[in-house]
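ZP: hey, is the flavin-adenine dinucleotide complex queued? I don't see it on the tracker
AM: it wasn't, my bad. submitting now with these inputs:
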Amino acid sequence: MEKDCELKLGPPERSQRIDVIIVGAGISGLVTAYRLLEKEPSLQIRILEASDTIGGNLKQIPQGEIGAKWFEGSQAHVYQLLQRMEIPIQQRSVVDATLPRCWELDQTVSSNLAKYELQRYINELQIKAPFFRPGRFSIRKNSTKMEKHINNRLFFSESRKFMTNLVELVCGSKASDITYKEFMSLCYGCGSLQNIINIYLECPNTLLEFDSAHLLNALTQRLQGTEFLVSRQVKAICHYKDYIEVHDSTQKIHTTDVLILAIPLNALQQINFSPPVPMELRKVMNNKLKLRLMLTSFIAGYGDAHWRNAGYSGSFLKNEPFIVGYEYRPNVYGGMMIHDSGSESLVRSIVLKAFAENYGEAMETPHSYNQHTFELSSLAHMPFTTPWHRIVWSSSAAASTCYRGFLGGAVQSGLRAALNALLLVRPQVVSWTDVADVHCQNCPNIKDVGALQLWMSGLNLYNVGYYTLYASSVLLALQLAFKKFG
Ligand SMILES: Cc1cc2nc3c(=O)[nH]c(=O)nc-3n(C[C@H](O)[C@H](O)[C@H](O)COP(=O)(O)OP(=O)(O)OC[C@H]3O[C@@H](n4cnc5c(N)ncnc54)[C@H](O)[C@@H]3O)c2cc1C
């Protein structure tokens, strides 16, 4: 097995064996390292990062945040982390609630009906999500696809498009590639659909924000003894009985007692595991994306408050292509566009054109413009939370039903991964309070849903139309029968 691993990458350079290696310097990897050192300062930790900076999806440019920036107060793990690090938390207060938002969904003739059926559908999914807790249901190959479910439930094309886009945002794959059951399980794990809509689409004033550079500084200061190796993409992992070898893109082999993988599922799928991961994990990992979906985040600065001048504030939403915008400051607008890989260079012109159509031509020529492309992280219906021998899973996708796919999930998985690693290398330092810290708060509860509420939530234009037709035909038949025989 050792030979196999080495042959793949040519003659390697070996490093000294260390206690814990963390792959990925996103928020989950950094929180894992922080927690490990807090519990056991003597641990030797090395972090391997593929890009040339740390922070992962937390990214800042001089105009402001271009990566993750907001969270709901209910994302308890993020809130507690920021408080511990003494990072100021502010309430977002830019949106002028008296001005209307600029959503394509609001501008069509049938918009009120479309919004009504959409709201009902989202409520239905929210009410039913707790029944799809990971492990509570089985996924068969012929399960209904989410695209079909949307088309069977929603009548208006605007509401269908909105929902299809939302599915892509939540699970990083097309609605035609994910089953209804998988999607429901993800909704359960992501907090709630309304939370996703708030953070990515509506961006209301109730959201909390923080300075990501401040947080990254605070975390790195507390990781003084940790070795950071950037521009080291992990290519292969060889798992032995007592240790693990990690092969990076510079042909170096790192040996460790415990390996923590704080990277998204997309990145896990690109690593060569020897021996291969067990069947149950492979099933989840092999649920590969047919298409890589990208998310380009942008910020554009202008000399004037164009949105407000045009009578709009708050958020912007276009369904095709899927563009979301928000007011960062009255003359600075941010947002994101979802697209297939390879079309990053077109984002700027598409976005500015869409803005110009809605708020005036001046929007096509910003004073400053910046963008950054991220791969949309895909989520599997089953998070990896149990270590595989000496390999521990972290990252937002590996959170146990605690804002998976969000900052809350990343922090929670980081804390849980640290606990898993400590149980392997220093079990004596683990206490019951550490287990409590990892515990998920605010998980939706099945018991709260009544049978009538469940039934009512499933009513939509199609089945109400069907029931009405059925009831009228029965009445008509009875009336005819009464006339004939009565
Ligand atoms: C544009 C955008 C905006 C967002 N906004 C919000 C928001 O407002 N609120 C919110 O709650 N959530 C938001 N999210 C989601 C949130 O950012 C993520 O859930 C969270 O940051 C994930 O953290 P992570 O540590 O799990 O992964 P990441 O941040 O993705 O970090 C993983 C790291 O691993 C590295 N890596 C990958 N593969 C390898 C490899 N083979 N070898 C070595 N290193 C590797 C990557 O380079 C990366 O640095 C947003 C996401 C995006 C993309």
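AM: back. Residues 461-485 form the longest helix (25 residues).
ZP: great, adding it to the tracker
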